[in-house]
Amino acid sequence: MASKKAIVLFSGGLDSTTVLAKALSENYDVTALTIDYKQRHMYELEASRKILVKYPDVKHIIFKIDLAKIGGSALTDEKINVPLTESTGIPPTYVPARNIIFLSIACSYAEKLDINNIFIGVNSIDYSGYPDCRPEFIESFQKMVNLGTKYGVEQKGIKIHTPLIRMSKSEIIKYGTALNVDYSMTVSCYSLNSIGQACGVCDACRFRKKGFLEANIDDPTIYKKN
Amino acid sequence: MASKKAIVLFSGGLDSTTVLAKALSENYDVTALTIDYKQRHMYELEASRKILVKYPDVKHIIFKIDLAKIGGSALTDEKINVPLTESTGIPPTYVPARNIIFLSIACSYAEKLDINNIFIGVNSIDYSGYPDCRPEFIESFQKMVNLGTKYGVEQKGIKIHTPLIRMSKSEIIKYGTALNVDYSMTVSCYSLNSIGQACGVCDACRFRKKGFLEANIDDPTIYKKN
């Protein structure tokens, strides 16, 4: 029975790939959990598969939940546009209760698979202001899950790891580069075009571009020409 | 814009049908949310549809999530038997993180549909010891969801209502009977046979039988002859 096992919530994006590399560098036996939530950017799933080719020891679970049926976000409802300029407040790319649902599914797997550690690549510095990326949410979720699960009651406990939560995007990129993350494989853009080019202007692209610039590392992303 | 709207997590069982009747008696505009989680007792879904025929003003959403893919419970994995005698500890009918996942989905809908109230029929008196039915879990979930959602941050807040949490099964039955709940339509048994008869011996049947007995109300359940 391995004592250090972890589930990594893994979208195939820059942050979660960095977290995956970090968990592996700490010798966790990793199960990568990718949620297919019928997101607009379904190429995330493809990216997650391609990235894991480099990490053959990682088990990969793809779990489907149709959040497009609920909608309410530019990422799950094609009638809502992805903003292409900076805005104030929580942007329309916020998906109602997404990280709560994702972490809940991860906790269900953690109990089933006897895994105490869950890693998630949330970040509250270079981010879109999503409430479910903030430290106070994660701390509260951690308490809740250990009251509401068999693991909690049996005092094994589930630990939510958020190694990136207080890092800037450039710090994340430097950190991942040192761990040999191939960022050319990761996808951030909310609005990739049909030939796989990032828009360069959505929130996710802007944070990514700024991160590479500030890290003084070449940005391998292919952006479309405007 | 109706000011009193509620989502009721509605399985078609005794408790959630009572909660539905209670929310309606308090003049909530009710959306019943039934989760099809590939549970062993899929007749729950059929019961939920039949019961709602009596409540034509209630909107009904059936949301699918395949918890059988995760497994780890007698209710989602046919290889695990439903216990037919009383046991100690959390029984194998516990579904890993089930109410956390259900409430998370309800919260996602609440945000999308601009609904502040969620009702759930959890009970911590005549129950199987599931950690996700206890008041301390619900209180913690309530805090968490108001830190992790747009609703929370915008200070509208989501309120989780658990009107049955400290009632005995007989109190629930008396309460629902006064609200004209037709318990003959509701399904509790974890192990119904192919002609729709309750086993009479699983945890859910035992609590139900005891409840009707103590309430001194005729039990309309059809139990199989042993």
Record field, number of beta strands of chain A: 5
Which whole number gives the mean pLDDT of chain A? 93
According to CATH, the fold-level topology of chain A is: Rossmann fold
Strand arrangement, major sheet of chain A:
3-2-1-4-5
> CATH-wise, what's the superfamily of chain A?
HUPs
Instruction: List low-confidence stretches of chain A.
Output: none
The helix-and-strand class of chain A reads alpha/beta
Radius of gyration based on Cα positions of chain A = 17 Å
Number of separate helices of chain A = 7
Note the overall shape of chain A.
Answer: globular
Roughly how many Å apart are the termini of chain A? 54 Å
The amount of helix of chain A comes to: 25-40%
In the CATH classification, which architecture of chain A applies? 3-Layer(aba) Sandwich
Order of helices and strands of chain A: EHEHEHEHHEHH
Most extensive contact: A-B, 43 and 43 residues
Main beta-sheet strand count, sense and barrel state of chain A: 5 strands, parallel
Oligomer: homodimer
CATH class of chain A: Alpha Beta
- Estimated share of beta-strand residues of chain A: 5-15%
Q: Give the total of domains of chain A.
A: 1
